[in-house]
Amino acid sequence: MRILITNDDGISAPGLKVLAAIAADIAGPEGEVWTVAPAFEQSGVAHCISYTHPMMVTEMGPRRWAAEGSPADCVLAGIHDVMSDTTPDLVLSGVNRGNNSAENALYSGTLGGAMEGSLQGIPSIALSQFLGPETRDLPTPFEASATHGAEVIRRILALTPASGGDYPLFWNVNFPPVPAARVKGTRMVPQGKRRGTCFTTEPHLSPSGRRFLWIRGGDQRVAATPGCDSEANLDGWISVTPMRADLTAHDALADLGDAFA
Questions:
Q1: pLDDT of 6-39, one tens digit each?
Q2: What are the two backbone dihedrals, phi and then psi, of residue 75, each rounded to the nearest 5 degrees?
Q3: Which residues are annotated as a binding site for a divalent metal cation?
Q4: 207 CB neighbour count, 10 Å cutoff
Q5: 95, 109, 171, 235: which has the fewest Cβ within 10 Å?
Q6: Alpha-carbon span 135 to 157, nearest angstrom
Q7: In the chain, where are the structural domains located?
Q8: Architecture of domain 2-196+223-245 in CATH?
Q9: Residue 127 in contact with residue 175, Cβ under 8 Å?
């Protein structure tokens, strides 16, 4: 198996090293793992692509490339340039430092990379590690994802349909903020919404007196939609959520379609 890996934390991020080890396990001794990752951190860019300016792609080592672009850019570069001789069999994005469950999924560059892989017709999975008090003092905060990642990916691949239609499935996997031994198992759950919290801005003055805004995330441990991804994570479960790039609200379309008849 030929696997393309990327992330949004940057090519030097420790989570990418964890993903490379997971990918090597999945690919097997006869397989190949190719890395095309952002040269600099690209957190929060979602499915952004560098449509209006070119990007430099630099070879950093055998099967290892850095791109001055987003995770979706990296997947495009990997498929159509770096690995243009043979399309990869699988795209893996992560392991993100921090969760991409609930509303975080909408902002996530990690998911943006997996989404682009699915739009290119390749099975694609985003992986993220929820952080919390129980992961703070571990030798690596990625212990749960490093231990359980390969098994979860194999289970997902066994469930992925051979033909996904115009908008094939891609998968959002979040590992809970606990040591590997305390992971309870895996649950297939919907994307949730943390209630009463959202991204905000915080103003700061520079030393020269200029006013700038920082984007602040909301509380990651507040109650969320019952039975959803973030609730499962906080209860010690790995969450797996099937997703599509189709943004149509099909329930509303059915209810409101007669309004324009």
A1: 999 999 999 999 999 999 999 999 999 999 999 9
A2: -65, -45
A3: 8-9, 43, 96
A4: 5
A5: 235
A6: 28
A7: 2-196+223-245
A8: 3-Layer(aba) Sandwich (3.40)
A9: yes
